[in-house]
Write a structure and sequence with these properties.
Blueprint (H helix, E strand, L loop, with lengths): L1 H28 L7 H9 L8 H13 L3 H8 L2 H9 L4
Helix pairs in contact: 1-2, 1-5
């Protein structure tokens, strides 16, 4: 039972990373500049972002996404979700 509980955070990380990768892929197919999966995931789980700092954080991330091409972000992302899930499966 302890092994199953220890594995849960890793599986949640895997699922969240996959979700971020799917969101990015959807917008990239439409030709929209996106963050990398890592940047999107870090934004989603950042405890320092509050309602008061949200607008500034979104502006900063919009500049980051706009500073690179759709293909450049996709190349950076290659295999990120797969790596996160490989980590999750390391737990028994």
């Amino acid at each position: 039972m302890l092994m199953i509980l220890a594995r849960q955070p890793a599986l949640i990380l895997c699922r969240c990373t996959q979700d971020a990768a799917h969101v990015n892929a959807f917008f990239r197919r439409m030709g929209i500049a996106t963050l990398t999966t890592r940047e999107l995931f870090d934004f989603a789980v950042d405890p320092a972002i509050t309602p008061d700092t949200l607008d500034a954080a979104l502006d900063a991330l919009a500049h980051v996404a706009a500073s690179r091409t759709v293909d450049a972000a996709a190349e950076e992302d290659a295999g990120v979700a797969a790596q996160a899930c490989q980590f999750a499966h390391c737990f028994p």
